[in-house]
Amino acid sequence: MGNLAEVRNLRKVPQFVVLEWGVPMASFLVRRLLLLIPVLFGILFVTFALARLIPGDPCYVALGERATEEQCFHYRERMGLNDSIAVQFARYMAGLARGDLGTSLRTNQPVGEIVLLRLPVTVELAVVAMVLATVVGVILGIISAYWANSWVDVVTMIGANLGVSLPVFFLGLMLAYFFAIMLKGTPFWLPPSARLTPGLTPTPLVEAFHLQGLTGLPLTLVTFVSNMATVNALITGNWKLLGDALRHLILPAVTVGTIPMAIIARMTRSSLLDVVGLDYIRTARAKGLREQMVIFRHALRNAMLPIITIVGLQLGGLLGGAILTETVFNLPGVGTGIMTSIFARDYTVVQAFVVIVAVIFVGVNLLVDLSYAYLDPRIRLQ
Amino acid sequence: MPRKLFVLVSLLMVVAMVLSGCTTPPAPVAPTSAPQPAAPTTAPQPEAWKAKYNTTAPDPAYGGAFKSIEAVDQYTVKFTLNVPDPAFLPKIAFGPFEIHSAKQLEATGGGGAILDTPLGTGPYMVKEWVRGDHLTLVPNPNYWGEAPKNKEVVMRWNAEAAARLLELQAGTADAMDNASPDDFAAIQADPALKLIPRPPTNILYLGMNNTHKPFDNEKVRQAVAMALDKQRFVDNYFPEGSTTAEQFMPPAVQPGYTEGLKWYGRDVEAAKALLAEAGYPNGFDVTVSYRDVVRAYQPLVSKLAQEFQSQLAQIGIRVQLKVMESGAFLAAVSAGQEPMFILGWMQDYTDATDWVDYHFTGASDDFGVPYPDLVDAIHAAAQEANPAKRAELYVTVNELIKKHVPMVPVAHGANAIVYSAKVEGAHASALNNEEFRVMSIAGKDQIVWLQNAEPITLFGNDETDGETFRATNQIFDTLYWYKVGTTELVPSLAESYEVNDTLTEWTFKLRKDVKFSDGTPFDANDVVATFVAMWDAKSSMHKGNTGVFEYFGGFFGGFLNAPAQ
Hints:
The complex is a heterodimer of chains A (382) and B (565).
Chain A: H1 3-12, H2 14-18, H3 22-53, H4 58-63, H5 69-79, H6 85-97, H7 111-146, H8 151-165, H9 168-182, H10 205-208, H11 216-226, H12 229-236, H13 239-276, H14 279-286, H15 291-329, H16 334-343, H17 347-375, H18 377-380
Helix pairs in contact in A: 3-17, 7-8, 7-11, 7-13, 7-15, 7-17, 8-13, 9-13, 9-15, 12-13, 13-15, 14-15, 15-16, 15-17, 16-17
Chain B: H1 2-19, E1 55-56, E2 66-73, E3 76-81, H2 88-92, H3 102-108, E4 124-130, E5 134-139, E6 152-157, H4 161-170, E7 175-176, H5 184-189, E8 193-198, E9 202-208, H6 218-227, H7 230-237, E10 243-244, H8 268-277, E11 284-291, H9 301-313, E12 317-324, H10 326-334, E13 340-346, H11 356-360, H12 372-382, H13 387-404, E14 407-412, E15 415-420, E16 423-424, E17 440-441, E18 446-451, H14 466-475, E19 480-482, E20 489-491, E21 494-499, E22 505-510, H15 524-535, H16 550-556
Helix pairs in contact in B: 6-8, 12-13
């Protein structure tokens, strides 16, 4: 198939050829973004309903175990929980339209504030973990494919299979135990939890750069960046803070990144092996190209597509892993935020976090699709 | 290039969507003092002091215990009650009755900023509170008592006991609350750690509701009481330091616990005979409900439930276990919907009224219809001022509980704090009132304390959980407090108190040398404002976090000007 069908296809839609790829790419993007609207609405509705389906009453969590019916009535009245779900949902949507995520039922904090504190922690963790997973995973995959079926391959793939099978919770505790307890007193010691050593605090960028006049979205963005400890340390040049933040990030990032790394390694290996068997590689070798050139220039580039898909998909899964990892390493991110707010039946906060995770997931998928089209010209034309 | 542009645009859109809802600026760092600057205290012509918040209930029959709260003079406060309350002192010594600054209450309307920018008179004040991460306390320079022995306390939290212990072992924390009973042995074997058990002030019981058959029959309840082997529970499922429960109240509750009064001994044959007498020679089927949460009184609850099941089977009671979500379970139990249930109680303040009044006088429907003779005995004991006479009256109460068996008391569970061996002044309080001010580590200014969860707010008046009170207790003072690590009441913001013979008028003489952490002086108006803000639902300061002021309502029966349901 392929060539002939493609040529026929091109003839049917000649404007695609004439206008290069700009228009189809743009319309593709617009279509995908429009599709996001019903998806987001669906997510909002389902999470709203699901949050309220968690068994248990926020009243007993907030007021303690001896709250009476009457006290609960007043509590629910105050929190607007006596209204029907439909009314509550309408009120929630109206707030959202104004950019108001509501206030926490439990602490009365604006939910936006909570998100701005916690999301940067998770984003930081996810990015570091993903970079780690991709770099190490691809390298392991290449090694494995290059020496396919040798003992190197066997060892690497056993390692990868172990990595996929290890529960995040177990791996996290084991790593913490090894690096924090067994290596205590050595230079390789790593802290078993928390984000920074007690006493160290990043200077908010708003203060560091005298941005007190900022409001609205710019302030949100600055605060968001400011709350990523490593980025904050880099911007303010606080190397002590950077070192401390990185030391605290290593174990959680390895924990979160292990499963994606293993999957990426396996995918790279099989994808590379597929490509290496093709004619043009044989041609490349026959031309007398150096092996590095063959692998990196010819084979890897063409093997990239499935790898990118898997990286994108893993980023979604990584958020799930982050919940457990943040719990083990006690990081104040979205994961621990979701856990605490579910236990507290803090509906507004649960909802905000779930929606955000969903939006990130949808967004990442969109990016994967776009990068597909970018990497493989054939896809844009279909 | 347009390709890159598209990728960039789409990336930006995703980020913008994510952040669209978060336009409010965060406050990761709480200011170290209250937002309201103190009024100048060095006015050349000091104004005459005036009582500003005195409040009297116009109609004493409004349903609550308070009749009036008054500042008699600048350093005297008088509480007048509608009913005698011998437990008034321990009640107001409990964390949620911390005293706030009247100025701050007024300025914030008792809500909003006051929830996370506390202004107290206690040994510590807040340096920063990074929500979700840590709370840093530093000594209050204006503290009236002995200055704290350390320069900084960092409070952190982790719900996993294993992870907390790991931190302690790694040296990144100096103390952790609530060690898992599974780890007790390992901790005791580690010379770098010390385990300090808390005296048990809780109870695990098997409740029975007399509105459900066959528990309407006293003989059935007594048979259940004889069926259980409590020692087996304690030996197998509780940590060291736990004891079997012979009465509902543990021995630490005095007056309340009756020395020498034993529960029914275990006697399977007699229990079977009683069941047969009650018309159940072949036993019966019953559902026993419980919730799968760890408490000091139920460290391994699923195993406890199975143990109940197997022990009851020996007298022919066929138990089906029903595990429920915690909130739903408590709601069902207090609505009287569960015939038989596994539950417990943890003491809030050191008085028998905290134990028997709530459970057995009809304040909730846990056990069904209250037993009238028991209710009378409890009320009589609660209103007796003389401790010796009160103790006598509680003998009757305990005997009646044993006779009617609304529940079977099973065990008093121990729990423990683990400290690094380097910590001096390490202690455990039966009331969870550990005080950071007496703790220190040689050569280190900082103490890192790990507990189960983050404080919800720093406004204890309207909170109910111990994790919050652990923080607020360091920042605020109550009128009376406890000697470190004990249950002995000692003066705190009050120097002394007087009470009339009928236990309805409680007058407190306040300390004159007390200042809030921002330097403003403390006087009777602060005490009255704090209590009126809780008591009077129409007060402009009655806001709080939930607005329910659960403990005030629970201890003192009701609010002034409460809205109708």
